[in-house]
Amino acid sequence: MPGDLEPLDHDAVLIVIDVQQGFRDPSRGPRDNPRALARIAALVDAWTGAGRPVVRVRHASTTPTSSLSPGSPGYAFEPFVAEIDPSLDVVKQVHSAFGGDVDLHAWLTNRGIRQVVVCGIQTNMCCETTSRVAGDLGYEVVFAHDATHTFDQVDPATGQVVPAWQLALATRSNLANGFATVGRHRGRPRGGRGRGAALRG
């Protein structure tokens, strides 16, 4: 989407979704965007360095054999996310961060926050679902698409593999049609508390 997305609101929240070690599991198959974690880390650094709020989300799978089930090594955050001192922690068993163990909508509403920036794993799953729900709830959503990644999937109708990059493209198109502004990360904050950590269209 064309256009400059900076500055953001002074209290724009960064929602960091499911950046957990279980997504390293090779059984998940090929993925896109190998620089995603570095870009997520850059956004986290920008937000924490500017004293802005960060919501850290973790998926707790109810499938015992899942690499994201509580108690499994993969349930752990990636180290740079584990080190965050978040404004709010959310644990969820569903795709949307708004369906977790904490009422995220109430938390945002009580603080008068109307703008959220979404990054994390997976692009077309929990990141897209959270963005759609946020948009329907009336938030101004910025989807940092290059600070997300996903994996190849199989089309059940044809049995064909849908590459991760195609799934990400579909997510960008979906969200840009009424749910979110789709932008790219820029890891360097601009102007600290007074101006938004930088994103661009």
From TrEMBL:
Q: Please report the stretch or stretches of sequence annotated as the Isochorismatase-like domain.
A: 13-153
Molecular function terms in GO for this entry? hydrolase activity
Listed InterPro entries: Isochorismatase-like_dom, Isochorismatase-like_hydrls, Isochorismatase-like_sf
The annotated region (Disordered) lies at 181-201
List UniProt keywords, sorted A-Z: Hydrolase
Point to the regions of Basic residues compositional bias: 183-193
Q: Is Hydrolase there in the keyword field?
A: yes
Q: Which residue ranges run through the membrane?
A: none
Name the UniProt record assigns to this protein = Cysteine hydrolase
